[in-house]
Q: What sequence folds into this?
């Protein structure tokens, strides 16, 4: 948002006094892969995250100040972590989508070996495809802010 305080101010003027605003923000980019994939150089996901973070992905804002400046009152802020491994199809599908987005932005940033490893993971078929793997888990965290109109 170019002007978060203004957006929150507009939201605050539309809410009745008994309403609750809930804002959820991704703290860090989600992780899916084990440290050692069994091929390629271990630590691929860490290198991918470092590359996209240096490009400005996921600059985690603290919305409390903008919410308070908008005239609403922040009532709570909590961080939740998650780890999902049991839902294999869900995790594989999310890994495929997220790593595809990441791969599109890493050409010229990562070594050719890492890009080839990513390509093998993103293939729809094959022994290394995230869609075939059983060792994936979706891990990350979110911060949640709640606020009420001050009026």
A:
């Amino acid at each position: 948002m170019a002007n978060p305080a203004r957006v929150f101010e507009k939201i605050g003027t539309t809410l009745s006094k008994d309403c609750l605003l809930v804002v959820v923000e991704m703290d860090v980019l989600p992780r899916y892969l084990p440290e050692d994939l069994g091929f390629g150089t271990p630590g691929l996901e860490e290198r991918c995250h470092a590359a996209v973070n240096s490009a400005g992905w996921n600059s985690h804002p603290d919305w409390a100040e903008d919410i308070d400046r908008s005239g609403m009152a922040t009532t709570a802020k909590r961080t939740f972590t998650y780890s999902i491994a049991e839902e294999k199809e869900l995790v594989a599908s999310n890994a495929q989508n997220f790593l595809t987005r990441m791969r599109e932005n890493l050409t010229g940033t990562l070594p050719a070996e890492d890009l080839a490893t990513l390509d093998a993971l993103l293939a729809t078929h094959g022994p290394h495809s995230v869609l075939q793997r059983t060792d994936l888990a979706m891990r990350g965290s979110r911060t949640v802010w709640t606020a009420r109109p001050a009026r």
The chain has one domain: 4-149.
